[in-house]
Amino acid sequence: MNRSPPQAVELLRQIKELNVYGKYGNERFGQYLFPVIGNQDDTISSSRMLVPLRRLGVGDKATVHGFRSVASTVLNESGLFQADWIELQLAHVPGGVRSV
Questions:
Q1: Most-buried pick from 38, 65, 81, 88 (CB within 10 A)?
Q2: Cα 34 from chain centroid (whole Å)
Q3: Whether residue 33 sits in one domain with residue 69
């Protein structure tokens, strides 16, 4: 099982403290940031992000992770941001393999 990076854990903790979903939605605030609609005690499946790609007709040609790769390439080539900042935002850990 993958462990969440420390920055994700901290952000999720802060969001939960703010109770943002419960404040602005009609549903109670569950333990998940992206719950299943109608069931706050379950998370959306990893394939859920593929639905929009399929609707666009590119589900067999594109992946969600592919957009991360494109973002990394574009941001690194722009020269506007430090490479380590980009990799951190993509949850790539220092000492790991840069994806692009």
A1: 88
A2: 10
A3: no
Asked whether residue 63 falls in the same domain as residue 88, the answer is yes
Range of the domain at 40: 1-44
Q: Please indicate, yes or no, if residue 50 is contained in any of the structural domains.
A: no
Q: In this structure, how many other beta carbons lie within 10 angstroms of the beta carbon of residue 75?
A: 19
Is 99 part of a structural domain of the chain?
Answer: no
Q: 75: Cβ–Cβ under 8 A, 6 or more apart, which residues?
A: 81, 86
Q: Is the pTM of this model over 0.70?
A: no
Transcribe 11-78 into DSSP letters. HHHHHHHHTHHHHHSSS---S-SSEETTEEEEEPPGGGGHHHHHHTT-TTT--HHHHHHHHHHHHHHH
